[in-house]
Write a structure and sequence with these properties.
About 45% of the residues lie in helices and about 15% in strands. The chain has about 150 residues and is α/β, with parallel strands linked by helices. It has one domain: Ribose 5-phosphate Isomerase B, Chain: A. The longest helix is centred in the first third of the chain and has 13 residues. The radius of gyration is 15 Å and the shape is globular.
């Protein structure tokens, strides 16, 4: 699988860890930066990575900032992105199976190396669920298109 990675300056210290893990798990990692601890605006990185997912240049992506929340909010503004912020293995599994997450957002400050490894591995190995979950994800797409999903 081709997995994009992006971080801001606060997530930079996780960069080598995550890129190395993706390689170890047999995935190709496309690195969108940041490439230093110099300040950078996380929406710029989130947008570039999310657009690569939408254009199908990569299959999924992982974004890291201080809390993970800013990246998640920014990525979800891109049509076609289902970004989820995950803090444990269960949220990673549910985000894929129930919510069809295609972008995983992580916290550089609130997660340790071992936990990040587990979250990423679960997220990459979980398939989308179908059934009632598909109906609900389709309703999210309706909202994304500006339509009332109740109609």
């Amino acid at each position: 699988m081709r997995v994009g990675f992006g971080c801001d300056h606060r997530g930079f210290k996780t960069r080598e860890l995550i890129i190395g893990l993706l390689s170890q798990l047999g995935h190709e990692c496309i690195d969108f930066g940041s490439d230093s601890e110099d300040p950078v605006d996380y929406p710029d990185i989130a947008y570039a990575v999310s657009m690569a997912v939408v254009r199908k240049e990569i299959d999924r992506a992982i974004l890291v900032c201080s809390t993970g929340m800013g990246m998640c909010v920014a990525a979800n503004k891109v049509k076609g992105i289902n970004a989820t912020f995950c803090m444990d293995e269960l949220s990673a599994e549910i985000s894929r199976h129930h919510n069809y997450s295609n972008v995983l957002c992580l916290s550089a400050d609130l997660s340790n190396e071992n936990l990040m490894h587990k979250i990423i591995e679960v997220w990459l190995n979980t398939e989308i669920g179908g059934g009632r979950h598909e109906r609900r994800v389709n309703k999210i797409r309706e909202i994304e298109e500006g339509r009332d999903p109740r109609e």
